[in-house]
Amino acid sequence: MALIRSIVKLGAYILLLKKVFAIPEKWSVFFKSTLNEINKLIINSIWIVVIISLFIGAVITIQTQLNMSSPLMPRYTVGLATRDVLLLEFSSAIMCLILSGKVGSNIASEIGTMRVTEQIDALDIMGVNSASYLILPKIVAMVIFIPLLVILSMFTGIMGGYIVALFTDMLPVSTYIYGIQSYFVEYYVWYSIIKSVVFAFIIATVSSFYGFRVKGGALEVGQASTDAVVMSSIIVLLFDVILTKILLQ
Amino acid sequence: MIEVKNLIKSFEGQEVLHDVSCLFEEGQNNLIIGQSGSGKTVLMKCVIGLIRPDSGEILYDGRDLVTMNGKDVKLLRREIGMLFQGSALFDSMTVEENVMFPLTMFSDDTLRNRVKRALFCLDRVGLKGAESKYPSEISGGMQKRVAIARAIALNPKYLFCDEPNSGLDPQTSIKIDELINDITKEYNITTVVNTHDMNSVLGIGDNIIFLNKGHKEWVGDKDTILNSENKELNNFVFASPLFKRIKSELDADEASLSLEK
Fold it and tell me: In angstroms, what is the C-alpha Rg of chain A?
C-alpha cells in the first residue's frame, strides 16, 4: 500500500513538473518574480550560510589538529583536510541540507497558505498557469544562485580555519595556507557545484510539490512544511550518494 | 448566459450532484442556495471548471466548457471574474497591485493605463485612497470590495461569487450585495452567487436555484420564494427565528384578511 502511495505521489510530482515547465505567460512578470525569489530565498540565506560555514570551518580545523597524533603526518594536513571536507561534502551537501530546512519550509508554507486561502484557485480562474507562475521562478532562482552560496560557503569555511590559525597557537598561519594550497584538485569545486545544482532543483520542486497539494487549513500547511523538509532532505542525501558514485569514481 | 445540462458529479462513489440542469441568465443575479452540503459549492466549482463533472454540459453562450480544449478554457477564463469566500487576495501585493494583476498578466496596455483602470475599478467599489495598503491592513468588507474590483478589472462577461457575505456584519453584507447587483446591471454580466444568506436572497435574487441533497429542488425569484409550497425550501427559508416570525405574521395577516372577507 505504501509503495502504491509512493508511486502515485511520484506520478503527481512528475505531472506538476510538466505544468511548471511551460513558457511564462509574460516574461516581464516572470523576471520580476524571479528577482523577488532571489531576494527572498537566496539573499536572505546569505547570513546563515556565512555564519554556519565560518564556525564549521573553524571546528574542522581545530578537530583535525587535535586528532592528528602521528608525528609522521605533516602539519599542513590540517589545512588540506579542512579544504577538502568543505569542498567535497560540507559546502554542497550539508549546506543544502541546512537550506532545505530554511528555504524548503519557506516555499512549502508559502504555497500551502496560498492553496488553503484559495489564492491558487484565483490564479487558475483568471487563466494563469498557477504552477508555472509560482514555482518556476523559485526553481530558476535556486538553481542559478544556490551554487553561488555554495562557493561562498567554501570561502567562509576556509576563512574559519584561517581565523583559528591566526588567533590560536594550534598551527602557524603559513602552514594552514600551505595546506589549503596543497594537492588542490579543481574538479572538486565543479563536483560540488554540480551537486548543488541538483540539490537546489530537488529542494525547490519537492517543497513546492508539498505546498501545492495541501488540503485543509493551518494544521495541514504546517504538516506539509515538515513533510517537505523531511522528504527533500532524504532525497538530497540519496542523490548525494548517487552523484558521488557517478562523479568521483 | 450559462446553461447547465444534466450535470452529475460523484466523489469516491457518492453522488453529490444528481442530474442538475439550470440556466444562469445574462444581466441577472443568479443565486444558488441550499443548506451546507447540498452541493452548491460543487456545482459552482464545476461551472467554473475547477472540478470536472462526471457527465453533463456547461454551456457558456453555447460553448461547452466540459469538452473545450485547454487553450479555449484559458481564453474563456479571461471572460470570468470570481469573488472567493475568503477574498483570495494576494498577500504579497498591495490593493492596487491586486486589482492590476489580471491586467498585468493579460493586457498589453501601458503601465499608465493599467494603473488608471485599477484606480477606476477601486473607485467603482468605493475604495479610493486604499490602493497602497496591503490586504492584511484592511477590513474583511474592504477585502471583498477589492476582490470585486479585481474581478471586474478585465470587464468580465461572467461573475461568480462564492458566499460573498460570509464573515461580514449585516450592514456591510447589504452593501456588498448592492455592489454586486449594481455591477451586474451596469455591465450586463451573468452573475452567479452561491449563498445561504436569506438577506441576499430577498435583496438581489433575480433567479434563484434551490439545491437540496444534490438535487435541483426549486427555481424561482425573490418575489416568489416566500410563497413557495415546497416543504424543503420552506424549511430552509424559514429556519431562522426572524424569518419564522415574518412567516407567522404573514400567515396571521392572511387569516385576518380571509376572515374579513
Answer: 21
Gap from A6 CA to chain B (nearest CA, Å): 20
Residues A123, A226 contacting (CB under 8 angstroms): no
Cβ–Cβ gap B105/A128 under 8 Å:
yes
Least CB–CB distance from A127: residue in B77, B88, B90 = B77
Query: Which residue ranges form the domains of chain B, and what is each CATH number?
Result: 2-79+189-260 (3.40.50.300)
Q: What H or E segment, with its residue span, contains residue B214?
A: none
User: Which residues of chain A register pLDDT less than 50?
Assistant: none
Residues with Cβ < 8 Å from B81, sequence gap 6 or more? B150, B151, B152, B153, B154, B156, B158, B159, B160, B189
Residue whose C-alpha cell is 504538516: A223
Residue A36: list chain B partners with CB under 8 A: 92
Q: How far apart are CA A43 and CA A54, in angstroms?
A: 17
Instruction: Of A34-38, B4-8, B105-109, B245-249, give the lowest mean pLDDT range.
Output: B245-249
Our CA-based measurement puts residue B90 at a distance from the nearest CA of chain A, in whole angstroms, of 6
Three-class secondary structure of residue B65 per DSSP: coil
Strands B158-162 and B190-195: parallel
Q: Closest Cα partner for A58 from A170, A194, A158?
A: A158
Residue of B nearest to A25 (CA): B105
- Are B95 and B131 in contact by the 8 Å Cβ rule? The answer is yes
pLDDT at A185: 92
Q: Where are the alpha helices (DSSP H) in chain B?
A: 40-48, 70-77, 95-106, 111-124, 140-152, 170-187, 198-204, 231-237, 241-260
Joined grid coordinates for residue B42: 460543487
Per-residue confidence at B109, pLDDT binned at 50, 70, 90? confident
CB contact under 8 A, A122 and B84: yes
Q: Is B19 helix (H, G, I), strand (E, B) or coil?
A: strand
Nearest to A26 by CA among A113, A120, A137, A108: A137
C-alpha distances (whole Å) from A34 to each of A40, A137, A143, A193 are: 10, 4, 11, 21
How far is C-alpha A201 from the geometric centre of its chain's CA atoms? Answer: 9
Q: Please answer whether residues B73 and B150 qualify as being in contact, where contact means their C-beta atoms are separated by less than 8 angstroms.
A: no
Query: Which residues of A fall within a CB distance of 8 Å from B90?
Result: 119, 122
User: Which candidate, B211, B205, B209, B151, places its Cα nearest to that of B183?
Assistant: B151
Q: What does B100-133 look like in DSSP terms, one character per residue?
A: HHHHHHH----HHHHHHHHHHHHHHTT-TT-TTS
Counting every residue written for chain B, the total comes to: 261
ipTM of the complex: 0.82
Closest CA to A94 of A219, A210, A237, A232: A237
Q: Say whether A125 and B50 touch across the interface (CB within 8 A).
A: yes
**A116 inside 8 A of chain B by CB:** no
- Find which of B42, B48, B82 to mutate to test the A interface (most A CBs within 10 Å of its CB): B82
